[in-house]
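Page 42, continued from yesterday. The earlier attempt failed because a stray header line got pasted into the input along with the sequence. Redoing it now with the clean sequence only.
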Amino acid sequence: MLHKIILTNSLVFFCLWAQAQESRFFMPKEIRQAYEKGTRGMDGKPGLKYWQNTADYKLEVKVEPATRRIDGKGTAVYNNQSPDDLNTLVVRLYYDVFRKANPRAERVDPEDIGEGVELKKLVLNGKSLEIGGREVQRYGTNLFIRLAEPLKAGQKATLDCEWTQYVPLTNERTGVADSTSFFIAYWYPQFAVYDDVFGWDTQDYSLRTEFYNNLGNFDVKITVPKSFSVWATGVLQNAQEIYPKAVFDRYQKALKSTETVQILQASDLKVGYANLSETWHFKAEEVSDFAFAMSDHYLWDAATQKVDNREVLVSSVYPQADAENYQELTAIQQQIMKHFSEDVPGIPYPYPRFTTFIGLQGGGMEFPMMAYNQNEDEGLTAHEMYHSYFPMYVRINERRFAWMDEGWADYITDIVMKRYLAKDPEPLFGAYKTSIQEMMGSYEDLPLITSSQFMDDSNYGYASYPLPAFVYSMLHHHLGDDLFKKAYQEYIRRWAKKSPTPYDFFYTFENVSKQDLSWLWKPWFFEQGYADIQIKGFQGGQLTIQNKGNRPVPVYVEIAYKDGKEDKILASAATWQKGAEQKITIPNAAQVKSLSVNGNVADLNEMDNFYPSLKEQVKEFTILDGIYGVYLIQGYNIEMTVMQKEGLPFLKLPAAGMESYLMPKADGSYTTLDKMLLIEFKEESGKITGLKAQLRQYGIEIQGTKK
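This time it went through. Structure tokens are written below.
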């Protein structure tokens, strides 16, 4: 009965605030004005007056591998579907990030620094424009075109241009994989976004924050030497004119095969491979960008994956020298796509192609229907594929709200990897402790609503990836699988091919769940703070805990009994709405040996989360002084430090953002408090010489040598 009363009150409150302006948490004026204009609704749906401008491209590009020179020409049509008359058009020249004197957030190869994009021709609606004159100004990575007459609502502008630029040696999201393998993105002059919230997006590209693009159609012809093959966004239109018969036959076979077909084989490349034509023709409809890759020595595997009665061609393109590492990559991609499409989020993969091209220097980078990845790692593969949903299908403004796509990519990847592939039933919020423990509650721990453009190397990664993933995991745990999936699917459907703000996300989940979730939104997105759970006492079978911080987190009590048995008690983060102090009844309390609260959840002070205290528990074990020191991790060129902190063994792995007290185990090994890292120290002739560690969070094992 009490549950029903609480729910009824929640529904009444929900209905009241939904009819009024937001007063529960801060709403900036740009967002508020969008609701006032009716372009967005406080039920989380696009408003009746929602609009978005689009841009369509017909492009021709030639790449000269020896010099890395890109010569392009083409026509872009900008459709002003806004209610505004535009006096200026903004065009992005992303490669101007390499232009002399332009600011950059990352170090680049000195050879890349030069003139950026060399514009040879610029014609607007049939009129030639003079760059650097009154009409056209170039600042940062943007080109501003002043219009003699406004582009009125409903009108189109046609921009013809010719340009030259160079594939960067700096292999950062795009660039040179090796001397004859390139991944080419951000290669054409691109209309910037003009939207209902911020107007023109004029932020410069600095190599840190990512992208926000218009929806559009692409018709692209790519010319390369015949010895090179090309993979790109969209569907190849002239395959029979390109591929030699044997390769074309394999390509046709792959289009109908669920088993991997090696389309480009080592035997092809041994005999001086050459395609039939130099020009490749691709088309892509309703996508936000276009990228392509090329190589004269990469192998190509492909197979189809059935998605919602469609056949999606899934491809893996990789260096011939490393072929043995990639034999299963296509099958892995098929499996991941199936889980994304049928399980979580349960929205069919929305495009006809997906290609993973290997060669990036570190990590991975997403593009419509493509990923540029470092290696075959399953988690990386899934993360980059998931970006097909966010920010591609749901067009996130990553420049301001990176957490709206990176956080989801991290979280949904973890669901697939842990629940479906590893069959691990543990709550997913336990995966993020080591990544957020050190930063939480610090000066750099800014509210998530902070625009990503104001983050730097100290907090951009934290605020974009593990922190939002942790919050999503709490939301999921609170709502439960069915309601969470229902709300998440509705969010994607509502905003497919559109551009939501954080408030559209908040309101959609509240609208679908019929709950006021401001208890979660406000402290985690709008306030600085931390979670700090403390055991206040354990008496009479009652465990008393307190949250001394302002941020709610789930309660996860692990119970160890004297007979060796274990038990767990788990409660939603919403439990803290009932007060900062909670009492939990512990079963079979007289037989309890030890208790821990939130050992796998980020907490400001972990020392008061254990009964008996951590120090008392560690007293039962002998800690060898020889374990303390610095260990060089083999193959990664990073260091792990094991030290004493408050009389207890403590680990720091700065490169992974990990730090934790170490709990000794009866078999002589040690584990972090969240149990995500297990360490076995190596001993030779009575001395500790190294260690072996299993990082459960990443599914890898590392070896360390003591310095």
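Notes: The two ends are 63 Å apart (CA to CA).
Reminder to self: strip header lines before submitting.
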